[in-house]
């Protein structure tokens, strides 16, 4: 900085819009692609071919959760920006809000997880519960225990040697699962839509004032709890439950670390591309990239810290149920992949991001942010996919008894699912970016942010 | 009658605010001085670039200090628990794949060595501790920790001249300009 101080004369009164023909073209193409692939995906998931559906269900949960972390991370950075009363990020706050505002639309991709024909391939505990239901047991046990069926589900589970499921019944039951599923989408949707509406309303207000600032700050406090509950328990319900006997208390934090890291990567890429396209020129400076780069660095370290803590405790404690997760991933090719993950998700970006000059160069940082995202794909692939061959060996023994660690050619489904959700995500993200001004041009702290130095 | 010999340290000029100091620093930088410094009661954002300071080599020292810590911890743990006296805990392997067990120690020593390198590297680069500084001879300099902003240009600077430097400091808004002399 120091060369030119940004004043209110530099900020257009009506703000800046995204007027890029390239962006609208990309939006159109990705929207059409996603619609087409979505139809194909629904056919694969719900169609007549069980083999396709079973394999594709795992591809689907991988792709959905990957983009879920990005959108949830956008909500997180918006909330954190408001609640920490931060001045530096006002210039990039709208990008965070737009990233978060993709969240509600992810329901279009996540809802198959709530359909029994998809669930039966993914969540073995649901199959057991449904079997109990079929035998006349209740939906769940608790203070309303057994109101539906003739026998208690808990007793049924214990009689059928599902002791773990009987113990976990208070959390793992179908009613609670659907209530939580609804909560994930209703709760955070209301939060991010409310905050975005509050923020956007300021752009055209002749007397912007500070009231919105304080309101956003107040409403971001308790809603951070909604965010934390959403990512933690969605991680439990959709990923950890792929193997109901496995559990890790670090799981929610682990997913959060990846979400915060990679949504920041998306924010960095968006800012850099918008600036290349001629937007945000006045308000986003190398200082902002430096700060965002430092956050990227911090969460790279945080991810490694959490990932290692999870591994270390499980590895040393050697409890059978806990070690399952790493046992599967330390077998065959997955073992190599896990070791490469340590090297390329942590060591390489750690050393590269140590350098201050790199964090101040938008394009250099963008390259690193793209790299981080690729590693996040790798991370989530290793979270979801190794369960596939294990589960399908149990579910389809006649077909998959011989398969050891991976199912041949199943990765084509992974790519297809990733493209489906990814193009949909891109469409809704570009749509959100084009709907409103690209930065809060009437925010009282915009000039503070534009002139930030650190 | 005093017979003490004195040596000229340089000029000390006071500025009335942080922003005046900032702008003056940019002008001194542009005039090409190299041996000079700013003194302010509190840190001023961006003053380092206004002074044209180069980046400190401290980060590099810390990087190698930290790496030494990592390697020390790894060698100690690996040497003692794998090579010299293989220690089997919970049926874990005793080879290079034992390394996760050493990560906490490697992490701790990285932090410890980095911390020490920061502290001692900083002291060395600032040539501290020292008993005295020539600027303490100035009667007004103690206000640098209270309410005054100073620029000191040293006589050792190749661009220094008794008249021109004084004129420069006056031009850029310096007041109470004082020629500081240290006792030999």
Question: What can you tell me about this protein's structure?
Answer:
Chain A: It comes from Haloferula luteola. Chain A: The chain crosses the membrane at residues 26-46, 58-80, 101-118, 170-192, 222-241, 253-274, 295-317, 337-358, 365-383, 410-430. Chain A: Keywords: Membrane, Transmembrane, Transmembrane helix. The complex is a heterodimer of chains A (454) and B (184). Chain A is mainly α and 454 residues long. Chain A has one domain. Chain A is 70% helix and 0% strand. Chain B folds into two domains: 6-54 and 130-183, no CATH class; 58-125, no CATH class. The longest helix of chain B is centred in the middle third of the chain and has 27 residues, at 58-84. Chain B is elongated. The A-B interface holds A 1-2, 308, 311-312, 315-316, 318, 354, 356, 453-454 and B 26, 45-46, 49-50, 55, 59, 63, 89-92, 100-101, 103-104.
Structural key phrases:
heterodimer; A: 454 residues; mainly alpha; 20 helices; B: 184 residues; alpha+beta; 2 domains; four-stranded antiparallel sheet; membrane (chain A)
Q: What is the element layout, followed by pairings?
A:
The complex is a heterodimer of chains A (454) and B (184).
Chain A: H1 21-46, H2 50-83, H3 93-100, H4 107-110, H5 116-122, H6 124-134, H7 153-159, H8 163-167, H9 174-201, H10 211-239, H11 251-276, H12 286-317, H13 320-329, H14 333-353, H15 356-359, H16 362-384, H17 386-395, H18 397-400, H19 411-435, H20 446-450
Helix pairs in contact in A: 1-2, 1-19, 2-3, 2-5, 2-10, 2-11, 2-16, 2-19, 3-9, 9-10, 10-11, 11-12, 11-16, 12-14, 14-16
Chain B: E1 6-15, H1 18-30, E2 36-39, H2 47-50, H3 58-84, H4 99-125, E3 149-154, H5 162-171, E4 175-183
Antiparallel strand pairs in B: 1-3, 1-4, 2-3
């Amino acid at each position: 900085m120091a060369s030119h101080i940004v004043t209110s004369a530099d900020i257009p009164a009506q703000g800046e819009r995204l007027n890029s023909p390239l962006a609208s073209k990309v939006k159109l193409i990705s929207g059409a692609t996603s619609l087409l692939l979505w139809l194909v995906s629904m056919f694969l998931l719900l169609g007549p071919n069980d083999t396709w559906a079973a394999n594709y269900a795992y591809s689907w949960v991988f792709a959905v959760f990957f983009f879920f972390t990005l959108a949830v991370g956008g909500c997180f950075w918006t909330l954190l920006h408001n609640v920490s009363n931060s001045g530096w990020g006002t210039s990039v706050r709208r990008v965070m809000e737009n990233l978060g505002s993709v969240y509600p639309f992810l329901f279009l991709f996540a809802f198959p997880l709530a359909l029994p024909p998809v669930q039966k391939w993914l969540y073995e505990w649901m199959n057991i519960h449904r079997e109990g239901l079929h035998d006349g047991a209740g939906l769940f046990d608790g203070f309303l225990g057994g109101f539906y069926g003739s026998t208690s589900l808990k007793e049924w589970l214990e009689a059928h040697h599902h002791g773990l499921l009987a113990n976990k019944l208070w959390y793992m039951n179908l009613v609670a699962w659907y209530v939580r599923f609804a909560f994930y989408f209703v709760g955070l949707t209301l939060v991010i839509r409310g905050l975005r509406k509050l923020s956007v309303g300021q752009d055209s207000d002749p007397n912007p004032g500070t009231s919105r600032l304080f309101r956003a700050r107040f409403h971001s406090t308790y809603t951070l709890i909604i965010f934390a509950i959403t990512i933690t328990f969605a991680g439990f319900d959709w990923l950890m439950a792929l193997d109901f006997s496995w559990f890790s208390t670090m799981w929610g934090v682990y997913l959060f670390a990846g979400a915060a890291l990679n949504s920041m990567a998306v924010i960095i890429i968006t800012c850099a591309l918008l600036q290349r396209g001629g937007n945000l020129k006045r308000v986003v400076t190398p200082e902002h990239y430096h700060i965002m780069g430092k956050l990227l660095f911090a969460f790279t370290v945080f991810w490694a810290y959490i990932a290692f803590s999870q591994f270390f405790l499980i590895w040393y404690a050697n409890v059978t149920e806990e070690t399952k997760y790493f046992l599967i991933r330390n077998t065959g090719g997955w073992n190599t992949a896990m070791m490469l993950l340590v090297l390329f998700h942590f060591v390489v970006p750690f050393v590269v991001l140590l350098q201050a000059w790199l964090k101040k160069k938008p394009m250099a940082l963008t390259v690193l942010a793209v790299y981080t995202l690729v590693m996040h794909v790798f991370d989530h692939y290793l979270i979801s996919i190794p369960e596939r061959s294990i589960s399908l060996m149990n579910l389809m023994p006649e077909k998959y008894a011989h398969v050891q660690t991976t199912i041949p050619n199943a990765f084509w489904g992974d790519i297809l699912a990733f493209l489906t959700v990814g193009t949909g995500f891109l469409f809704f993200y570009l749509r959100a970016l084009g709907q409103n001004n690209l930065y809060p041009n009437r925010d009282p702290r915009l000039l503070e942010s534009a002139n930030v130095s650190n | 009658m005093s017979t003490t010999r004195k040596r000229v340290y340089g000029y000390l000029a006071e500025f009335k605010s942080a922003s005046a100091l900032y702008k003056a620093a940019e002008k001194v930088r542009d005039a090409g001085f190299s041996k000079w410094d700013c003194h302010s009661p509190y840190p001023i954002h961006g003053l380092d670039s206004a002074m044209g300071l180069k980046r400190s080599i401290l980060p590099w020292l810390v990087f190698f200090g930290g790496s030494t810590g990592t390697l020390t911890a790894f060698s100690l743990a690996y040497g003692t628990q794998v090579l010299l006296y293989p220690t089997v805990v919970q049926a874990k392997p005793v080879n290079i794949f034992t390394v996760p067990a050493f990560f906490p120690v490697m992490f701790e020593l990285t932090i410890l060595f980095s911390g020490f390198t920061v502290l001692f590297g900083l002291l060395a680069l600032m040539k501290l501790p020292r008993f005295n500084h020539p600027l303490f001879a100035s009667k007004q300099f103690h206000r640098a920790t209270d309410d005054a902003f100073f620029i000191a240009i040293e006589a050792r600077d190749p661009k220094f001249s008794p008249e021109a430097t004084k004129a420069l400091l006056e031009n850029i808004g310096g007041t109470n300009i004082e020629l500081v002399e240290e006792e030999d």
